Prior knowledge:
Layout: E1 2-7, H1 10-19, H2 21-34, E2 42-46, H3 58-71, E3 75-78, H4 84-94, E4 97-100, H5 101-112, H6 116-130, H7 139-142, H8 155-160, H9 162-191, E5 197-202, H10 208-216, E6 233-238, E7 244-249, H11 259-264, H12 270-273, E8 277-283, H13 289-302, E9 310-315, H14 322-325, E10 334-336, H15 345-355, E11 361-369, H16 373-382, E12 384-391, E13 394-402, H17 403-409
Parallel strand pairs: 1-2, 1-3, 3-4, 5-7, 5-8, 8-9, 9-10
Antiparallel strand pairs: 6-7, 11-13, 12-13
Helix pairs in contact: 5-6, 6-9
Amino acid sequence: xxxxxxxxxxxxxxxxxxxxxxxxxxxxxxxxxxxxxxxxxxxxxxxxxxxxxxxxxxxxxxxxxxxxxxxxxxxxxxxxxxxxxxxxxxxxxxxxxxxxxxxxxxxxxxxxxxxxxxxxxxxxxxxxxxxxxxxxxxxxxxxxxxxxxxxxxxxxxxxxxxxxxxxxxxxxxxxxxxxxxxxxxxxxxxxxxxxxxxxxxxxxxxxxxxxxxxxxxxxxxxxxxxxxxxxxxxxxxxxxxxxxxxxxxxxxxxxxxxxxxxxxxxxxxxxxxxxxxxxxxxxxxxxxxxxxxxxxxxxxxxxxxxxxxxxxxxxxxxxxxxxxxxxxxxxxxxxxxxxxxxxxxxxxxxxxxxxxxxxxxxxxxxxxxxxxxxxxxxxxxxxxxxxxxxxxxxxxxxxxxxxxxxxxxxxxxxxxxxxxxxxxxxxxxx
Length: 430
């Protein structure tokens, strides 16, 4: 059973007018499907302000209660955050379990968390969500069963002894600190080799994991369901300049993402905070693209990374009619692609190359003895060779080399180029 309250306050009303009721409801349907529920009915209510006791108006609540009884629904889902008292009051009226938007998203997160860290973060968010909702709940909490909203901590134990919750929360936080420390050590080892990180960010189901897999061959789960990716994955990618970067796939964002989840996954999103470049992946076919961009930018502001260089990656152009697709023009900060059909990926990699300032490309003319086989092999693998000739048992080359390699090649340089600008390369800007 699906119930939705549309305009509950002024802020929500503005959001709904911008997104559109149907688009917003379609997104909630996707959340419900991702949680594995079957929708038996839908209700929409427009109100100037929410009812403080039940959020929904009394008449609409009675209508929902009748529908619940007629189809024998065992669950009412509401696309809004409910206070503990509102949740209990609605349950009394409809005689069924009631789950709000936050608990629904928590349930989806619990389904998809695979790493130990992700599972701990979800459990912590679930416990902190449950804590204020224990008072006044009785036998319905002792019935664990299966289904939406029951994954995670055992509710009977939580109701029996509130102190156990606090002890469990402290224990989880300690475990998360341990995981964070280990991850920090792993990151330090990565950073000992200067590889910049490029982080994929964007609205959930925009195609980030598909793009990640195409560029890295990582085999991360691709799914049309929301929040299919929770655990960050980092893999290496070689750019056209032959520089290597680390590409990071992250959890997708969503409208009104619960603040408890943003804080719970702050550690996971550290890869975003440390990234040298953000790839903001968006679904070009979405009718709510502008609002989704606003929601993503809101989370990025919370993470204090809006000042980072960004490239807008407009994905799924294969789903757009050919005539409309011809209107898409790449710019310095926007690239149109189809990750699924592998269209526009060369342009994307070149754009990443152009935006990265870490280990910047230097244009050099060098002369290396042919006896330096190891160095020549290194140049072949890490530099873009523009010209090459052989004379007097030496190899004379004109190369675009990353700064880290250029330092090694400096002693073989025969004609320093003023400013060491990157020029002559097919990727250089005119």
